[in-house]
Design goal:
Shape: globular
Strand content: 15-25%
Oligomer: single chain
Number of helices: 16
Distance between the termini: 50 Å
CATH architecture of the largest domain: 3-Layer(aba) Sandwich
CATH topology of the largest domain: Rossmann fold
Number of strands: 28
Number of domains: 3
């Protein structure tokens, strides 16, 4: 089916108008109210001149013919309204990392060619400082918060603008070709805008499939699917909506006629607030991003008791979730399934690894979803189960058009293999004989030591099996002997101690000895993005500062250095 997001939402609002769509603090918006507010925002954008300037058929894959609306927001109903409002105006929403400093923000808004910016008042001083350097930015819409920052000159107040706008459907006809733009996290390089057709990302990751994987085939089926769910799927959202995993989880929930519950605390992840939301709202599912969210949640469950009897699935995506953390979830909440999913900005959802008390718990091996596969290292062949060679984790079918304004990177990432266009964003993988796929990690953070490729994520998983390790990241640094050597940057649990020898002994149970760290750096915390992704540029800097002592030194890790 070829369909746009506004058409999907019109079908949902007609089918379940009084069902709750979004719960945030004191707001409980029904589907009808949510769609009306999004239409009002769309009419604000249209009245200010945002529009489609060139239709998709006139453009190459890396080009956009639409105006772009940047969303510089914490989590809240305004973020989801901003996305749908932009779609309804035939503008393209763009995610902005709210932790960016001025130069990073300037890069992204310039690269994205943002014409409108919806931002929380807290960020007004930063917006004001950059405004003169962003000539394409014509419309500012400021969302009130508790920061006390006044409305910038010339900016619109979000709620006042919506109140004054028409609630009628916008006077433009959306297209399945209209863009969804998702900027990559930029943890290993500069962020890039991934361009998706709305119809493709809807089916690939944002609610266009039934739970059995079949695509919804008509507007009538969308409505029937939502009605049949009876509103049971109430989902608590952990990661920030500026991250693809949170956007996808939200749209999947809403596409089923379910309710997205946004915890009260939005500036940081608060495990008590998150668990209280599950308890209070009787949530069926919750979404986290890997170990960075899992560890504080598990620590909070050890400190306090919550009624989580309604919870059926703990979903994780966007970053690795270790075997140790999966096991601990199943010990503390034995009735749940831990659903570990993998995908990327360039592929959508690709594969999953469900764990419960009745199944073996593992990390790094996944059951592929429709269109996922492994292609050869030289990008010449499509591999199959039984082919043991190391290749690339890839996706075919509904994949992006390309990277915004980057024809060269588009051609590299989306090659044609055996007559089919694939997305190959850079994760190394191999098939197992049973058809599952072992995903080893991003090639850009692979360490080449003595001619052997060592994948950072597998060493991180191994170290996290030690009970004293709270978090860790692995990076390479130059070595005269090996070319590169593995360095582990480790944050220990509060009050815990572990020597380098002890950490190495635990890791040696899970990976070959040549993959073990040659040195360890201890820090109070590991730098990650708000979405839980490791900052490998920071990690490499820490690794290069570490002394050249061998890991076998055996000293106790005592007070960590700050950094």
């Amino acid at each position: 089916m070829e369909i746009s997001f506004p058409e999907v939402w019109d079908a949902l609002a007609a089918a379940v108008p009084e069902r709750e769509a979004v719960v945030f603090r004191d707001r409980r918006l029904t589907f009808a109210q949510f769609v009306e507010r999004s239409r009002r925002l769309a009419n604000v954008l249209l009245a200010r001149g945002l529009r489609v300037r060139r239709e998709r058929a006139e453009l190459a894959g890396h080009e956009s013919g639409q105006d772009h609306v940047a969303l510089y927001l914490y989590n809240g109903n305004e973020y989801l309204e901003g996305m749908l409002g932009a779609f309804a105006a035939r503008a393209a929403p763009v995610n902005v990392n709210y932790r960016y400093v001025e130069e990073e923000l300037l890069y992204l808004l310039t690269n994205a060619r943002a014409r409108a910016l919806v931002y929380h008042a807290e960020f007004a001083p930063r917006v004001a400082a950059l405004r003169s350097r962003l000539p394409a930015l014509e419309l500012l819409i400021q969302v009130r918060d508790d920061s006390g920052e006044p409305l910038l000159p010339g900016a619109l107040d979000y709620e006042e603008a919506l109140a004054a706008a028409s609630p009628a459907p916008p006077g433009v006809t959306p297209s399945p070709d209209d863009l969804y733009i998702l900027y990559t996290g930029g943890t290993t390089g500069m962020p890039k805008g991934v361009l998706w057709r709305s119809a493709d990302i809807y089916m690939a990751a944002m609610g266009g499939r039934r739970q059995d994987g079949r695509e919804l085939a008509s507007r009538e089926e969308i409505a029937e699917y939502a009605v049949a769910s009876e509103g049971r799927n109430r989902a608590v959202l952990g990661p920030p909506l500026m991250h693809g995993a949170a956007q996808w989880a939200s749209f999947i929930t809403l596409g089923m006629g379910g309710t997205v519950i946004i915890p009260n605390e939005t500036r940081r992840f608060d495990p008590h607030d998150f668990l209280s939301a599950i308890e209070r709202e009787r949530a069926l599912t919750c979404t986290i991003v890997g170990d960075a969210f899992a560890r504080p949640l598990l620590d909070q469950l050890a400190r306090a008791s919550y009624d989580l009897s309604s919870l059926f699935v703990v979903g994780s995506g966007g970053a690795p979730l270790s075997t140790a953390h999966k096991r601990e979830f199943l010990e503390r909440i034995p009735h749940v399934t831990v659903m570990d999913s993998i995908g990327s900005s360039e592929t959508g959802a690709q594969a999953s690894n469900p764990s419960n008390r009745a199944t073996p718990v593992s990390t790094g091996d996944f059951r592929p979803l429709a269109g996922a596969g492994v292609v050869s290292a030289d990008l010449a062949r499509v591999l199959a189960p039984g082919d043991d060679e190391l290749g690339w984790f890839a996706q075919r079918g509904r994949v992006p058009l390309g990277y915004l304004d980057d024809a060269e990177k588009t051609a590299r990432t989306f090659p044609v293999i055996e007559g089919v266009r694939w997305s190959v964003p850079g994760d190394r993988a191999r098939y197992r004989p049973d058809g599952t796929i072992e995903v080893l990690g991003r090639d850009s953070v692979t360490i080449n030591s003595g001619g052997e490729k060592i994948f950072a994520e597998e060493v991180e998983h191994a170290l996290k099996q030690h009970p004293a390790v709270y978090d860790c990241v692995v990076a390479g640094r130059p070595s005269e002997r090996w070319g590169q050597e593995v360095v582990a940057i480790v944050a220990l649990r509060e009050g815990a101690q572990a020597s380098e020898v002890e950490l190495g002994a635990e890791a040696a149970k899970h990976v070959a000895r040549y993959k073990l760290p040659k040195a360890y750096v201890f820090r109070e915390r590991i730098e990650r993005s708000p979405s839980g992704k490791a900052d490998y540029r920071w990690a490499r800097a820490q690794a290069e500062q570490a002394p050249a002592a061998p890991a076998a030194g055996g000293g106790q890790a005592s007070r960590p250095a700050r950094g």
